[in-house]
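Researcher: I'm preparing a figure for a lab meeting and need a structural model of a single chain. I don't have an experimental structure, so a prediction will have to do for now. The sequence is pasted below. Please return the structure as tokens so I can convert it later.
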Amino acid sequence: MFKKAVIFFSLFLMPLSLMAAEVGGKIQSISLEAKVIQFVNPKTTTVTVIKFNDETKLESAESFEDLIVNTKIKATVDDNMLASKIKRILVQLPKDQIIGTDELAEMIEGGQPLFIGDARPQGKYNIGHIPGSKATPASELEKNLNWLPENKMTPLIFYCGGVTCPLSPKALKIAKMNGYENVRAYVEGFPAWKEGVYPVHVNRDWLNKNLDKHHVVLDVRNAPDTFIKGAVHLPASQLVQMHQKWNKEKFPTKKRTIYGLRDKKAPITIVANSEVSEEAIEAFEILTFWKFKNVAILNGGMASWSNEQLPLGSGKIATNLDYVKKLAKGAIEETAFVEAVKAGNVTIIDVRSADEVSKGRLEKSINIPLEELDQHLNQIPKTGLVVIHCMGGSRAAIAYTTLSNKGYTNVKFLDDSLEEIAKENGIKLI
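Model: Understood. Here is the structure written out token by token.
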């Protein structure tokens, strides 16, 4: 009894900074430079920002580079939200219920009888999925067993968002409970499929609903006589030439682009005569190598699009890209940012490192590295427009969340390349 009392009393004497709490969720953004992670709790939709350092213990991952977007984690943090431990929550399944990337690719290429179910939400499936897969959201599968093949001996494979995603195991369990015996989960999931530069498809019905300025339709055929409404033309042969030239020049892959497109997350649909055309595969592999994150090939290609009498363009196909990035929550439009900077009526917070800032910054900007932001709130006014920027937008987005959680309602962030915007709009970096 006495020992318990001593322990209990000591807790009250312990500094709050030493009191640990456990938080967790799915990673939305991570900055390895600033050592900051933003994640969301899927159940409460609460967004949290935590910090880590060289002393943070990492479990179930070889390095912090394994903590990619959508990774599920648990972290032990102090009252300053500094993590002493971060654990990647891995899916646990028997080995005989798991299939790897190469084996799945071989089965697809071999044309084996196979049902592939995408256990992610429908919206994720729509913007890119493994060829031949069907949308089978795990949250809806139990009430929609008709999505599955009638023959319960058919091999079923479910996948979702990677090694920490619980949706493919959930779909596997539902299928097994309903009499399907030959069921496995592709646990590495869609991230590993994309990392292996295997083809990704989108369906025609989805593209037909998204023929707008926020989506890029890239026709890579040599001389198209008909084309999808709103498509832009860039032959695969020209992409190959650009790729070979930049390889010889050792031009950084992250800076390689088409038509000056800065948004590497832009949804790009590649169109050729069919989804297996050499032109489509070449273009997909090159753009993926150039670090475009949302590239997919149109399933069925132009042949199926025309046969189904879906919208066609008129006149001559465009050779200039008309794309507008869809603004994320809290992001400021480029024109509004440029006007505010030139007018000088905005507080600009630069969350890059001091070393980055020394190579060029906006005049009158305030440099507060992201990892130090919560220690310098006194420098950030709560009235008047405040705009945060970094190099390309990722750290600025985390800073926006941090300040929003601190009660700031007057903050926006630049979700774009500062260097390119400054160059295009005559803004001098000092």
